[in-house]
Q: What sequence folds into this?
């Protein structure tokens, strides 16, 4: 417990330093420090959570690895950095998606949440379209363009599935998963605005804060367990 509190204190210090350097005009240093946030949460997870799951662990590891790639970017080509970094993020999101999907009855979800599915698909198409409109002037229609589409699709699918999971489960663990996914999607959207529209310090800070909130909710859900799957299925029958 003492070690966990020490690492949490270090995490909060890293977060504060990220904001201070951002507002001091040292964005590169701020981004470097920011890259330690999820690796620290991953360390806290492995130290403090006994019943770890494979998919969630892979999400944390892959996402952390991509974040830490910032330190080797000067020594590798732009294309290797871009494709490998985004591939790790996409795989991380996919494993988190699998973590949520493994406890859902797809048949019951489709049967009981038809309207929800229709609304979510429509919303995802709209948000995906808006994101591509923002990115289009800066990314040519090459492989990078399609990587952006895949990245956004997987991210929005994560948000939709986590919301359906909350409707399906209606418990605290599912709520934390949804809140984490919601925060991470908003963080990504704001980061796109910071990167491609306006490099305002406030956008960067809000995005970083939302990422931290997302990791917090994901960590909290990892310490909880679902109720018996059969109980949720019976309620929907």
A:
């Amino acid at each position: 417990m003492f070690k966990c509190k020490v690492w949490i204190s270090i995490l909060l210090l890293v977060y504060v330093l990220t904001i201070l350097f951002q507002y001091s005009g040292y964005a590169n240093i701020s981004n470097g420090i920011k890259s330690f946030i999820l690796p620290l949460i991953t360390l806290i997870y492995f130290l403090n959570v006994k019943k770890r799951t494979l998919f969630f662990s892979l999400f944390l590891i892959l996402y952390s690895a991509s974040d830490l790639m910032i330190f080797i970017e000067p020594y590798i080509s732009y294309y290797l950095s871009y494709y490998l970094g985004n591939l790790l993020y996409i795989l991380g999101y996919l494993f988190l998606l699998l973590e949520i999907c493994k406890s859902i009855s797809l048949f019951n979800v489709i049967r009981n949440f038809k309207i929800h599915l229709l609304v979510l698909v429509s919303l995802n198409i709209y948000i995906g379209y808006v994101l591509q409109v923002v990115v289009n002037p800066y990314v040519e229609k090459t492989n990078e363009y399609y990587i952006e589409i895949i990245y956004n699709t997987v991210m929005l699918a994560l948000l939709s599935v986590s919301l359906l999971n909350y409707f399906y489960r209606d418990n605290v663990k599912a709520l934390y998963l949804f809140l984490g996914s919601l925060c991470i999607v908003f963080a990504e959207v704001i980061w796109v605005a910071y990167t491609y529209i306006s490099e305002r310090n406030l956008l960067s800070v809000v995005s970083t804060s939302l990422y931290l909130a997302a990791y917090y909710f994901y960590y909290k859900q990892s310490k909880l367990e679902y109720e018996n799957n059969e109980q949720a299925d019976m309620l929907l029958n």
Remarks:
- Residues 143-169 form the longest helix (27 residues).
- The chain has one domain: 2-236.
- Residues 2-236 form one domain.
- DSSP finds eleven helices and no strands in the chain.
